[in-house]
Design a protein that fits this description.
The structure holds two protein chains of two kinds.
Chain A: E1 2-6, H1 10-24, E2 27-31, H2 34-43, E3 48-52, H3 60-69, E4 76-80, H4 85-93, E5 98-101, H5 106-120, E6 127-130, E7 133-136, E8 141-144, E9 147-149, H6 153-164, E10 169-170, H7 172-179, H8 188-202, E11 211-214, E12 218-221
Parallel strand pairs in A: 1-2, 1-3, 3-4, 4-5
Antiparallel strand pairs in A: 6-7, 7-8, 8-9, 10-12, 11-12
Chain B: H1 6-53, E1 56-57, E2 67-68, E3 84-89, E4 94-97, E5 112-117, E6 120-131, E7 145-153, H2 155-202, H3 215-219, H4 224-270, H5 276-310, E8 320-322, H6 323-340, E9 344-348, E10 355-357, H7 360-376, E11 383-390, E12 395-401, H8 424-430, H9 436-446, E13 450-456, E14 460-468
Parallel strand pairs in B: 9-11
Antiparallel strand pairs in B: 1-2, 3-4, 3-7, 5-6, 6-7, 8-10, 11-12, 12-14, 13-14
Helix pairs in contact in B: 1-2, 4-5, 5-9, 6-7, 7-9
Chain lengths: 223, 475
């Protein structure tokens, strides 16, 4: 999953980004002003955007409105220091999906971010199930037929992304775009390495193959 | 405190004045009636007296004694109390008398007098030297002159006077009641706009600032000034309340951000096991954030205190100090920042000492805040001018000019607003809170001075502070 944090308080943005990377395993991009944030959101496929309201150059509310005008449907979680009813109503009406008032709890921020990603991809619960494969996104554990599967951080990221879009074709480019932040060099062959690792770990024993390759198109996770 | 009611007082005034009037009326009425009745009675008495004189006849057969025709004596005016009379001849012999002790004129020289007989008040007339009517020829021996006293009971007259008094008193009482009722009704009617106004004013609260006085209250000449004053007052209160609320909102917002940073730093530190070096870095960061928070609090308190002084709620004993000296201290304080920005501060000191009554620390803070802004918004390598002078109008004039980015005309009136920032990101980097100019303004105003800004976008800004000069140079 890839998250954009638009927040002008560097320290706060850093803490949020670090927390998302460390505890959720997300790729995080940080932008410190409205215009840059809008550009990033327009040019990269994010799974969720965390947006501060008081931003230099372009206010958060305008960023939000412009995103929605361009039909960019990425879920937006607004971080605001104001909690007056009117401004919250205004926010939600402008297209925000959720909001958190400062000072917020990092745990709550994580939970809300995960929930927004889940809802954005049509998943009802934090536990994703594909056949006998079970992925718990809260504590990031994977089970197959009751057996715990030990994955590396990157393998988990790939699997989590695929599991959020079961039975859909996911291209290598899409995986690259959603698993790495802006500063990362993107080589498509690393994806193949992770996929083969995943296949090996998930298929210990007689269980059927879950990750299928569609040549020239990408991967598909299904029973 | 005991409340007093205008209505009750007015009603009492009406009652008391009306009652006095009624009493006066009763007395005058009674007096006048009595006078009139007495005049009537007196002429009646005279007529009666003359009547009985007519009954005195010379005796026939040449007798010496006068004869009184008792049978022709007319009936008295009062059926219960008989009239009294006494006729004497000039030789002192009694010609005729009602059955009573002798009547004596107690008033000596007056024709009329009053007396009481048998518990009944009487009024009497005394006619002297009345000639006997139609003296017959040849009776020279008989006395020809009479002394007549005739008295009528006053009971009836007294009753009439009493009746007149009661009548007037009753009429007055009725009139009094009518007046009081009218006054009550009139007062209620005329005081209604006042009550409406009060009801209207009672509805004003922190949540509802609309004060629309009832049209009736505005049309009453006596209430118009009150209504106007209330409208102005509500308007001012509303404005200052809104300002306070805005300040509170801004303050909360400004406080929340550093708290959010601090909280997230500590939470992310606790999210997993970390190396001592990471903990150390995290703690150092937290401390830094905390210091920022502390600084913000200090500035907010400083502002609150300055504003308290500006509104005159605190009384301070102040000594006259030299403005030049405080400027020098401010320049010392800002030197670090100025050299970091490679900015020169030029001080144009006034040749003479410029004295003003103020706390030197406050003045220093004002100059520091102005210089800090000037340095921050100036390009590196430029210079900032600090000039101290007098404006010739018994006021010291201190200006801080820079050749910085300037302030747009739209933004110029806002620069002294609390928490106003030209560009949030820019000042946040430099650690400003948007309170410096607000504090400077509050302090300057606390000392009875004024502060203003002139600016041209891209050319620079000039801040002008004027403070009242102290007339005395200290020893």
């Amino acid at each position: 999953m890839r998250v954009l944090v638009v927040e002008d308080e560097h320290r706060l943005a850093e803490n949020v980004a670090r927390s998302l990377e460390e505890t959720a395993g997300y790729a995080v991009d940080v932008s410190s002003d409205g215009e840059d944030g809008l550009f990033m959101a327009e040019t990269n496929p994010y799974d969720v955007i965390l947006l501060d309201l008081m931003l230099p150059r372009l206010p958060g509310l305008d960023v939000l409105r412009r995103l929605r005008q361009q039909k960019i449907q990425t879920p937006v979680l607004v971080l605001t220091a104001r909690d007056e009813k009117e401004s919250i109503v205004e926010l939600l009406n402008a297209g925000a999906d959720d909001y958190l008032t400062k000072p917020f709890d990092l745990g709550e921020l994580l939970a809300r971010t995960k929930a927004l990603i889940r809802r954005g991809k049509g998943q009802p619960t934090p536990t994703l199930t594909i056949g006998d494969l079970e992925i718990n996104t809260v504590n990031r554990t994977v089970h197959r037929s009751g057996r715990t599967v030990q994955l590396t951080a990157m393998e988990y990221r790939v699997l989590e992304y695929l599991a959020h879009k079961p039975r859909a074709v996911v291209s290598k480019t899409e995986l690259l775009e959603h698993l790495y932040d802006y500063n990362w060099e993107k080589f498509s062959n690393v994806i193949e390495v992770y996929i083969s690792g995943l296949r090996r770990k998930l298929n210990e024993g007689p269980s059927p193959q879950l990750i299928h390759t569609l040549r020239g198109q990408g991967y598909i996770l299904q029973e | 405190m005991k409340t007093r009611s205008i209505r009750r007082r007015l009603i009492w005034t009406v009652i008391v004045s009306q009652a006095a009037l009624a009493i006066g009326l009763v007395f005058t009425g009674v007096f006048y009636t009595r006078r009139q009745l007495l005049a009537t009675l007196d002429s009646h008495l005279q007529a009666r007296a003359m009547n009985i004189v007519a009954l005195v006849r010379y005796p026939e057969n040449n007798g010496k004694t006068l004869f009184f025709e008792k049978t022709l004596l007319p009936l008295g005016s009062d059926s219960q109390h008989a009239d009294l009379f006494e006729i004497r001849a000039d030789d002192g012999s009694i010609v005729a008398r009602s059955s009573n002790p002798p009547l004596v004129n107690t008033s000596a020289n007056h024709r009329f007098w009053e007396f009481s007989y048998d518990g009944v008040p009487y009024r009497a007339i005394h006619l002297r030297d009345v000639p006997v009517l139609d003296p017959e020829e040849g009776t020279p021996s008989a006395p020809s002159r009479l002394d007549v006293i005739y008295a009528c009971p006053l009971v009836q007259m007294h009753q009439q006077i009493w009746a007149a008094g009661v009548y007037i008193a009753l009429a007055s009482a009725l009139l009094l009641c009518a007046t009081v009722c009218l006054a009550l009704w009139g007062l209620r009617r005329n005081l209604a706009p006042l009550q409406q106004l009060a009801a209207c004013a009672a509805e004003v609260s922190a949540h509802k600032w609309e004060f629309q006085p009832p049209a009736e209250a505005g049309s009453v000449a006596e209430l118009a000034p009150l209504t106007e004053a209330m409208q102005t007052m509500v308007g001012r209160l509303r404005q200052s309340f809104m300002q306070e609320r805005e300040f509170l909102g801004n303050a909360a917002h400004e406080l929340k951000t550093p708290v959010a940073i601090l909280k997230s730093t500590i939470q992310s530190l606790l999210q997993k096991q970390r190396t001592p070096a990471e903990y150390q870095a995290g703690l150092a960061q937290s401390l830094e954030d905390l210091e920022r928070l502390e600084k913000l609090l200090r500035w907010m308190l400083r502002l609150a205190r300055a504003e308290q002084w500006a509104y005159g709620t605190l009384d301070r004993q102040l000594e006259a100090i030299d403005i030049n000296a405080t400027c020098q201290l401010a320049i010392e304080a800002i030197r670090g920042l100025a050299s970091a920005h490679n900015t020169t501060i030029r001080f144009h000191q006034n040749a003479a000492t410029v004295m003003s009554r103020a706390d030197p620390e406050d003045l220093e803070l004002i100059w520091v805040n102005l210089l800090e802004n000037a340095v921050r918004y100036s390009p590196d390598g430029s210079s900032v001018e600090l000039t101290v002078g007098a404006n010739g109008n018994n006021r010291a004039r201190v200006t801080v000019s820079d050749a910085g980015i300037g302030i747009s005309p739209e933004e110029l009136p806002l620069v002294f607003k609390r928490f106003h920032r030209a560009d949030p990101s820019r000042t946040r980097e430099t650690g400003g809170f948007g309170l410096g100019l607000a504090i400077a303004k509050a302090l300057v105003e606390a000392y009875g001075g004024s502060i203003s800004a002139e600016s041209k976008l891209g050319r620079g800004t000039r801040m002008i502070v004027e403070l009242p000069l102290s007339d005395k140079v200290p020893d």
